[in-house]
Write a structure and sequence with these properties.
The chain is mainly α. It has twelve helices and no strands. It has one domain. Helix 5 packs across helix 7. The longest helix has 25 residues. The radius of gyration is 17 Å and the shape is globular.
Length: 244
């Protein structure tokens, strides 16, 4: 079991875990089941740092949190967003789109997507509390399970591996338990997760149209977009005094 957690950290973060884990189907399946746990741990790190930076200006706090996010993830999800933007907005067919997404170079659409995403996060992160940041991060990691459960890989790769080896019953159970917890905390928290799920399905449909499936880049793009969406939603809920 511990091997799955370590592998999940190695998949989703750049936090150094100097332990060699066999890259076999059993460990990969376990790792996928631990994606939610990694999300919770990352959320705890971000939210606690944000809380302790509360004595600084909001702009400075938001800036440091975004830097921390990039460092701990190694920009992995941002890279996925960039690849998706370059490929999906290229106006090409499936094969050419996939070829563009695999290109290590960042194009104009990818650059624009990263700039707009970080700017959106920077603006709305200043408007929310550390508790909201926690749930925004967890929602995005739980929401990516939708892509893993319902997506199909357009080609052999990480996306295909995730979908083939995903412990579907465990994932569904995790989602149900999480939703029950959110209901207990308040319907507003549940609504943000439901919007995260909606975003996952919309991205799934769009990705199916563009590349006939979902790959690792799409998963990464979803995590970034979902975090930004949750920042906006929590700002809206706080502005409307719904969370209080």
């Amino acid at each position: 079991m511990i091997s799955g957690l370590i592998l999940a950290f190695q998949f989703l973060t750049r936090i150094p875990v100097p332990i060699a884990i066999d890259f076999n189907d059993k460990n990969i399946s376990r790792a996928i089941g631990f994606f939610s746990v990694v999300g919770i741990i990352m959320a705890l790190i971000y939210s606690n740092v944000y809380k302790h930076l509360s004595n600084l200006d909001k702009e400075i706090s938001a800036f440091f949190i975004l830097i921390l996010m990039v460092i701990l993830t190694g920009g992995l999800h941002l890279d996925g967003l960039s690849d998706v933007a370059d490929g999906f907005f290229s106006g090409r067919g499936k094969e050419e789109t996939l070829k563009i997404m695999k290109d290590s170079r960042t194009g104009a659409f990818g650059t624009i997507a990263i700039v707009l995403l970080l700017l959106t996060k920077f603006i709305f992160l200043q408007k929310i509390e550390y508790q909201n940041l926690f749930f925004a991060v967890v929602n995005s990691r739980m929401g990516v399970y939708i892509l893993i459960l319902f997506g199909r890989a357009p080609s052999n790769g990480l996306g295909d591996t995730f979908q083939r080896l995903a412990p579907k019953k465990l994932i569904i159970l995790e989602i149900i338990i999480y939703m029950v917890i959110l209901i207990y905390l308040g319907l507003a928290y549940l609504y943000t997760f439901l919007f995260s799920i909606l975003l996952a399905f919309l991205l799934l449909l769009y990705s199916n149209k563009k590349i006939a499936g979902v790959n690792g880049d799409v998963n990464g793009a979803y995590i970034e977009l979902s975090e930004a969406l949750n920042f906006i939603l929590y700002w809206g809920l706080s502005y409307g005094d719904i969370l209080n």
